From TrEMBL:
This is Poly(A) polymerase I. Residues 397-423 are annotated as: Disordered. Belongs to the tRNA nucleotidyltransferase/poly(A) polymerase family. InterPro entries: NT_sf, PolA_pol_head_dom, PolA_pol_I, PolyA_pol_arg_C_dom, PolyA_RNA-bd, tRNA_ntf/polyA_polymerase_I. Adds poly(A) tail to the 3' end of many RNAs, which usually targets these RNAs for decay. Plays a significant role in the global control of gene expression, through influencing the rate of transcript degradation, and in the general RNA quality control. Residues 397-410 have a biased composition (Basic and acidic residues). The active site is at D52, D54, D130. Its EC number is 2.7.7.19. Pfam families: PolyA_pol, PolyA_pol_arg_C, PolyA_pol_RNAbd. Residues 303-420 form the Polymerase A arginine-rich C-terminal domain. Residues 188-249 form the tRNA nucleotidyltransferase/poly(A) polymerase RNA and SrmB- binding domain. It comes from Pseudohaliea rubra DSM 19751. Keywords: ATP-binding, mRNA processing, Nucleotide-binding, Nucleotidyltransferase, RNA-binding, Transcription, Transferase.
Length: 423
């Protein structure tokens, strides 16, 4: 263990949440150990301003809950305590110990940790953490940083390194491979050689992770503002094929699929940077669009009308994806609507087209159309037309549609109404 005194690091109490300081002070006041730990310490040492603050202690979850009326115990696999101060939540975890067959720890046959409520010492907790840069502890009592895994050296070297044997740590929890990639993308760090090499050999372990948990990880990977870099690393380390195999296969075969997804990630990252809202539905729509588009084309070749073909293709592709990633209906429904609107955007005609910009899902579908054009898909250049069209009022839209060439290829009107035969 290395103890870095206050005059040898840059952490200042004024950059720490007052709520976190209160939690640590109360725990210390009851003769418990209490440290700021994990991402907050890491980001403070990097000169950042973290929003989330986690505390580690030797108090059990029940003892922590007894000290804070504004708290509740959550989780089964890992029992932790959430202490709420208004909208802010301070997460308090008890030091984890080694698995020796006692306590509430349980492994599966493959070595996966099924339950991890085995408590131990500060030293044991440090080596049980996944990454060296996340095993740094700040003591608000004496202002020192405790470093048990050379995390400070790895921070200075801009290095992501798993603590312990990477193969064993990935067997314990395969999601750690995604965390390695996520933090490398977020911080712009390189991945240590052994940590990276073991990912390629262990990537298949992700296939056994429950679909709901993988969906939660997808949100962290792609909606935190560094999705483009994350996507590059997922592909480089052969992880995307275990999350979205269809997307990986299409990107290998067609550069337009790769360009579409890169553009979607860049757009989402920009929205996050500008503090604008983002939705998983848009990224998921981009990930699965090549598969849905191809399936719809095959159905059209069999005689299905375009709208029905896309509707059927969307249902099939999303159902297959949900076997790996449990996509909630609140996101799968907007995905289908974005896809199904693409044909109407490519073939604008009639009153329905005039009213389309006023529909709830139009903006997302329009943005998606523009990304398809950026990726090189042939939409007939209709994106620029919709850019102008949506700014018009309803009357002007009707005039614009009336002036549009009715014989313009696939976007033209049908040849005419069928006449009723005389009686």
């Amino acid at each position: 263990m290395k103890v870095i005194p206050r005059d040898q690091h840059c952490i200042s109490r004024k950059n720490i949440s007052p709520s976190a300081l209160k939690v640590m002070a109360r725990l210390r006041g009851q003769d418990f150990q209490a440290y700021l730990v994990g991402g907050a310490v890491r980001d403070l040492l990097l000169g950042g301003h973290p929003k989330d603050f986690d505390v580690a202690t030797d108090a059990t979850p029940e003892e922590v809950h007894g000290l804070f009326r504004n708290s509740r115990i959550i989780g089964r696999r890992f029992r932790i305590v959430h202490v709420r101060f208004g909208r802010e939540i301070i997460e308090v975890t008890t030091f984890r110990g080694h698995h020796d067959g006692e306590g509430e720890g349980r492994r599966g046959e493959s070595g996966v940790l099924l339950r991890d409520n085995v408590y131990g010492t500060l030293e044991e907790d440090a080596v049980r953490r996944d990454l060296s840069i996340n095993a740094l502890y700040y003591n608000a009592g004496d202002f020192a940083v405790h470093d048990y895994a050379d995390g400070l050296a790895d921070l200075q070297a801009r290095l992501i390194r798993i603590i312990g044997d990477p193969h064993e740590r990935y067997r314990e929890d395969p999601v750690r491979m995604l965390r390695v990639v996520r933090f490398a993308a977020k911080l712009g760090f390189r991945i240590e050689h052994h940590t990276a090499a073991a990912i390629k050999e262990s990537a298949g372990l992700l296939d056994a992770i429950p679909a709901p948990r993988l969906f939660d990880e997808i949100l962290k990977l792609f909606l935190a503002g560094y999705g483009a870099a994350t996507l590059t690393l997922l592909r480089r380390h052969h992880l995307l094929e275990h999350l979205f195999p269809e997307a990986e296969e299409h990107m290998k075969r067609d550069v337009r699929a790769a360009d579409l997804l890169a553009a979607a990630m860049a757009s989402t990252d920009q929205r996050v940077a500008e503090d604008r809202p983002v939705t998983p539905a848009f990224i998921l729509a981009a990930l699965l669009w090549p598969a849905a588009s191809l399936r719809a084309e095959q159905l059209r070749d069999r005689g299905e009308p375009p709208t029905q073909a896309m509707h059927s293709a969307a249902q099939q592709v999303i159902a297959e994806a949900c076997h790996r990633i449990a996509i909630p209906k609140r996101f799968s429904q907007p995905m289908r609507e974005i896809w199904e609107l693409q044909h109407r955007l490519e073939s604008p005609r009639g009153k329905r087209a005039a009213e389309l910009p006023d529909q709830r899902r139009f903006r997302a579908a329009y943005d998606f159309l523009l990304l398809r054009e950026i990726a090189g898909e042939d939409t007939g250049g209709v994106g620029e037309w919709w850019t102008r069209f949506q700014e018009l009022d309803l009357e002007a839209r009707s005039r614009e549609l009336a002036a549009r060439d009715p014989g313009d290829g696939k976007r033209g009107r049908r040849s005419g109404r069928r006449r009723r035969s005389p009686d």
